[in-house]
Amino acid sequence: MATAVRNTVRLLAVPLDEALRMASTYPATVLGLERSHGRIAAGYRADLVALDDALRVRSVWCGGIRERHATTQSRID
Question: Is residue 71 assigned to a domain?
Answer without folding.
Answer: no
